[in-house]
Design a protein that fits this description.
The chain is an all-alpha fold. The protein has helices at residues 2-18, 21-44, 46-59, 71-75, 77-91, 96-111, 120-135, 143-170, 172-196, 212-236, 243-264, 269-272, 279-304, 316-320, 338-364, 371-381, 390-393, 401-422, 430-439, 444-470, 475-491, 497-515, 524-542, 554-572, 576-579, 584-610, 621-647, 654-672, 706-750.
């Protein structure tokens, strides 16, 4: 039975991949390649179709599932820059020295596009592809052939830009659904991880903190979800004018609320575990969370399969039945009693249950989305699509990672080109360069991951390609094979690079064969493997040239995180949303919440990447992990306060909370509101006078909850102080490491 369930789950996972937006995008790109190359083949012949297909392949990297607005200008830079470079390589094909003098500065300029971040990376790759695939063509016999080949390249590129804009517009409705479903699957995975925290303690009675492995998984999943949410916002929140778009936008807003509720769901969990009879209650809560995760997964599957989701079971009655008896014989409690804690935890899970019910109702059409929030959010939360010169102007700093990466890539390409010319199979020198372009990344961890996938993928891809070419298929059959390889390579480029590497190897070899019609492929397997190993080794080696170690970015990331946390606290604790949730303070708070999660996501990802770096240059991991954990704890406390202010305002006494809210804002601002400076760690400060004082905590379900809100404010203030100390320890450790390195350098100079 277990093996059968595992096989069923694997089948469902495979179906989700097949129905995903990135696979559909890959199919759309491949269909464009087939349509354009096939049309040119019928009209102008095989060689023209081969050159046109290069234009398509070069233009395709920026073609991802994206908003309709700005799609044309996102696609335009690659062919606009790539076309003259393709032509210049054609002219210098038989002049290795002059060609090298073109490749080196052009590589530097191409990699400068990475200053625009995720938008610039595919542009840089596409520009490099234009030169590398031009090198893969036979040497032109003269100017006329070079011009003709370039015109065919430009024809394919131009037609594909038009096709990409039309295809993206036609598939936009499906992309919205698929991106939403993908987001729900990630949310369900996060729910399951959160549910693991509700595991009862063992029989020894030891109360342990969250295991480091589970905490690390939570941090990584939260960071990944933050990145995924922005990609979803860009597509789903674009022009939500029709009822279906508004429905999906409402679901996205609900996912944002669910993320906050999941954060707050674990509050007071450790305190409850001190009660000897906590196991049944925690087990029931864990099962309910897992059931809600299953409902969310089923909802995502229904969206992908274009069917009406089943109604979700309301688990509020089960949650209401969870209770613990207070042990009166153990003496009076100074804090919340076990019964209060268990009911509080169950109630927070109940809010998650309510939002899952809302998700289901929106997907089924039984509920109407909150159009006020959707209309106020869509323009603010969608990423800008225009190209700005600001990233380029801010690039010219010796410590800027994009500039150092551009220099590093240029040196790697120069070294690879020199080695390629010296190899006995120099006619295939472009393959080493291609390997460097797809493997070398801005961080060592990403380069290592791509290096391993590239080598393994090339080995498999070479075997497939040689088998395909040995069958002596017709040009049309090879074009169909290229189309399939393009679909797989493009679709999995971001998700699973090993699969992309296999398909890209087949695509590259078949493309090169068609550009060099009649050339034998008998030695191709050994050439490609050797070229790939050389290129991967060079990419790895040049990671250590002008390295941008993650520790150099940590101070700025820490400062950004603290600043974002302080601003989020200021807006979350403000009384604007208490008085009216539709006013502008609500939108300001949502923007601050996004920045708090995004800044923390960037810090988590940088810390994760640093694990692959040499131990001597790693940042201080322990205080970084503490800062990340405390940041999420602060967000959880503030989410709980926000829920009280918005959802349970009828049980709050405004006169009693106005002053404590203002004082909490001041204390958090004083602790983390200013950017930390390097130097020795700040001394431990004496605990501030608590806001809640010794006020007894009444039953929050039958009385005024003001004391509970004051308790949350005290906890938030304490966590802010811990954040300040974490940041000070991080900066102190970095300063000590830099001083030590400088001392070693000076000692070596003296010797």
């Amino acid at each position: 039975m277990a093996s059968q369930r595992a096989a069923t789950e694997r089948g469902r996972a495979a179906l989700r991949v097949a129905l995903s937006h990135y696979v559909l995008n890959g199919i759309a790109v491949a269909f464009g390649l087939l349509l354009i190359s096939g049309g040119v083949h019928l009209a102008l012949g095989t060689l023209a179709a081969s050159a046109a297909s290069v234009g398509v392949i070069v233009t395709a990297p920026p073609d991802l599932a994206a908003p309709r607005r700005g799609k044309f200008f996102q696609m335009l830079p690659a062919p606009l820059i790539g076309l003259p470079l393709f032509f210049m390589v054609q002219l210098l094909h038989a002049k290795p020295l002059q060609l090298g003098l073109l490749l080196v500065p052009a590589t530097f300029l191409a990699f400068l596009a990475m200053a625009w971040g995720k938008r610039g990376i595919p542009i840089a790759i596409a520009v490099m592809f234009s030169m590398i695939f031009s090198m893969a063509t036979p040497t032109p016999t003269g100017m006329a052939e070079a011009v003709q080949r370039t015109m065919h390249f430009g024809l394919g590129a131009g037609l594909y830009v038009i096709y990409a804009v039309i295809a993206n517009s036609a598939l936009n409705a499906r992309y919205r659904v698929q991106v939403t479903a993908d987001l729900l699957l990630s949310l369900a995975a996060l729910m399951r991880t959160e549910a693991r925290q509700f595991m009862p303690i063992d029989e020894s009675g030891d109360v342990r903190e969250i295991p480091p492995s589970l905490l690390g998984q939570l941090l990584r999943e939260q960071a990944a979800l933050a990145d995924q949410l922005q990609a979803a916002r860009d597509i789903v929140l674009e022009s939500p004018r029709t009822p279906r778009r508004q429905q999906l936008a409402g679901m996205l807003v609900t996912v944002l609320e669910l993320r906050d509720l999941l954060l707050a769901s674990e509050l007071d969990l450790d305190a409850l575990k001190t009660h000897p009879d906590h196991a049944p209650a925690l087990t029931e809560m864990r099962d309910i969370l897992q059931g809600l995760a299953d409902d969310t997964t089923a909802l995502a599957d229904s969206l992908l399969l274009i069917r009406k989701p089943d109604a979700v079971t309301d688990r509020r009655p089960r949650l209401a039945a969870i209770h613990l008896q207070d042990d009166v014989s153990a003496g009076s409690y100074t804090g919340p009693t076990p019964a209060m804690l268990s009911r509080g935890l169950a109630n927070r899970i109940g809010h998650i249950n309510d939002e899952v019910l809302r998700l289901s109702g929106l997907a089924r059409g039984d509920r109407e989305p909150d159009l006020a929030v959707v209309r106020a959010s869509w323009q603010v939360f969608v990423s800008p699509t225009e190209w700005s010169l600001r990233p380029f102007l801010a690039l010219w700093n010796w410590d800027a990672p994009p500039l150092r990466h551009a220099i590093r890539a240029t040196l790697a390409i120069a070294a690879a080109y020199g080695i390629a010319l010296a190899m006995p199979w120099g006619s295939h020198d472009y393959w080493i360069l291609l390997t460097i372009v797809v493997v070398l990344r801005g961080s060592l961890s990403q380069t290592l991951e791509r290096r391993n996938s590239r080598v393994a993928g090339t080995l498999l891809g070479c075997v497939f390609a040689v088998g395909l070419l040995s069958a002596h298929l017709s040009p049309l059959s090879l074009l169909i094979g290229m189309t399939l390889a393009q679909a797989i390579a493009h679709g999995f480029a971001v998700r699973r690079y090993l699969i992309t590497s296999v398909a890209a190897t087949v695509l590259g070899l078949v493309q090169a064969h068609m550009l060099n019609t009649g050339v034998s492929t008998a030695f191709a397997l050994f050439e490609r493997v050797a070229d790939t190993l050389i290129g991967a080794a060079l990419a790895w080696a040049f990671c250590y040239v002008l390295p941008s170690w993650e520790r150099g970015q940590i101070p700025a990331l820490v400062a950004r995180t603290l600043k974002a946390q302080a601003r989020h606290a200021r807006l979350a604790l403000g009384l604007g949303q208490f008085r009216s949730v539709d006013a502008s303070p609500e939108l300001d708070w949502r923007l601050a919440r996004r920045e708090a999660f995004d800044s923390l996501s960037a810090l988590v990802q940088a810390t994760q990447r640093s694990l692959s770096e040499p131990r001597a240059v790693r940042p201080p991991l322990e205080p970084l992990e503490h800062l990340q954990a405390h940041s999420y704890q602060l967000l959880a406390q503030l989410s709980a306060v926000k829920s009280m202010l918005v959802l349970r305002r009828d049980r709050l006494t405004v006169a009693d909370i106005e002053g404590p809210l203002a004082r909490t804002i001041q204390r958090i601002e004083a602790a983390i509101g200013t950017a930390p400076t390097s130097g020795p760690a700040m001394p431990e400060s004496p605990p501030a006078t608590t806001i809640a004082g010794s006020i007894p905590l009444p039953d929050p379900f039958n009385n005024d909850i003001t004391p509970w809100l004051l308790r949350r404010l005290d906890m938030a203030t304490g966590i802010a102080a811990q954040l300040r100390d974490d940041a000070a320890r991080i900066l102190q450790s970095l300063a000590e490491t830099e001083a030590e390195a400088e001392a070693h350098t000076q000692a070596g100079t003296v010797r």
